[in-house]
Design goal:
The structure is a single chain. The protein has helices at about 70-80, 90-95, 115-125, 145-150, 155-160, 170-180; strands at about 1-5, 15-20, 30, 45, 60-65, 85-90, 105-110, 135-140, 160-165. The chain is α/β, with parallel strands linked by helices and about 180 residues long. It has a single domain (about 50-180), classed as Rossmann fold. It has a five-stranded parallel beta sheet with strand order 6-5-7-8-9, with helices on both faces. It has a two-stranded antiparallel ribbon with strand order 1-2. A two-stranded antiparallel sheet has the order 3-4. The chain starts with a strand and ends with a helix.
Length: about 180
């Protein structure tokens, strides 16, 4: 769907300015609601997968990354592939809002202010010891390998350690693999 807006200045000698906005970048959603309601008051049904248009049970992912641009990029990509994603740029806020059983996977950046991703995961596990949640740690730094192995010796590095930068397709494949 393309929206065209034409602006004509009051002075006849100025050219017309035409602005085209392409919405094809964003994931396709099916709007639910009556056609008379305003777009901002409509609800969005995201139960249709963008790849095969079949109804799927969405897996829920919490992303915690202090770089909001990266978190939003991951969110857009994963939602396009059929996941429900909630993002936080503050690990303490994410910890306070975490509810056991609400997420199928945590995607945690390691290097964050206030609390790193390892400590955040440890806090979640200690506060909700009756419920296990899968995790993938994301980082651009290799120096965390040893700390990761010491803290989480029961987790396989190949299954839950993602190196930045990561291609969005590779991120989705890693998430799908971890959720199986």
């Amino acid at each position: 769907m393309h929206a065209c807006i034409t602006y004509v200045s009051e002075i006849q000698f100025k050219p017309k300015i035409k602005v085209l906005q392409d919405w094809s970048f964003f994931p396709s959603y099916c709007y639910v609601g009556n056609n008379n309601s305003r777009p901002e008051s409509q609800t969005i049904d995201t139960s249709l997968s963008s790849n095969n248009n079949s109804i799927t049970e969405k897996k829920k992912i919490m992303i915690v990354d202090d770089e909001l641009d990266i978190a939003n990029l991951y969110k857009l990509s994963l939602e396009r592939d059929g996941f429900f994603v909630e993002i936080f740029d503050d690990p303490l806020l994410a910890l306070s809002r975490y509810k056991a059983g609400a997420y199928d996977l945590l995607l945690l950046d390691i290097n964050m202010p206030k609390m790193n991703g390892f400590k955040l995961y440890q806090e979640i596990l200690s506060r909700h010891s009756d419920y296990y949640v899968k995790v993938c740690f994301v980082t651009a730094f290799e120096e965390y390998d040893n700390q990761f192995k010491e803290l989480f010796h029961g987790l396989e590095e190949a299954d839950c350690f993602i190196r930045k930068p990561v291609a969005l397709k590779a991120l989705t494949e890693k998430v799908k693999s971890r959720l199986q």
